[in-house]
């Protein structure tokens, strides 16, 4: 009797990947933020945009971490507690 394994790529894992890749894409696409306008509290866009991504990256990494653990717990309970 063959037991069907759950798919490796699931919607939750796609969201996790997006959360982890988005900051890299945002920072590597320098042309999108290589300017001085708009200025926020006297700080040119180039600088405050990057500082904003520090906070956003932290939030996205925390979200990815929580989603990963939730996914792992769901898989373990579905597989009868087997470790992967």
From TrEMBL:
Q: Which InterPro entries match?
A: DUF3311
Question: Known Pfam families for this protein?
Answer: DUF3311
The UniProt transmembrane annotation reads 12-34, 46-68
User: Keywords, A to Z?
Assistant: Membrane, Transmembrane, Transmembrane helix
Name recorded for this polypeptide: DUF3311 domain-containing protein
The species is Streptomyces kanasensis
């Amino acid at each position: 009797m063959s037991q069907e394994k759950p798919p490796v790529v699931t919607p939750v894992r796609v969201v996790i990947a997006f959360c982890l890749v988005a900051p890299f894409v945002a920072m590597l696409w320098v042309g999108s933020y290589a300017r001085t306008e708009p200025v926020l509290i006297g700080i040119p866009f180039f600088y405050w945009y990057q500082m904003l991504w520090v906070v956003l990256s932290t939030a996205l990494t925390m979200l990815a971490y929580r989603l990963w653990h939730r996914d792992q717990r769901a898989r373990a309970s579905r597989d009868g507690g087997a470790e992967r």
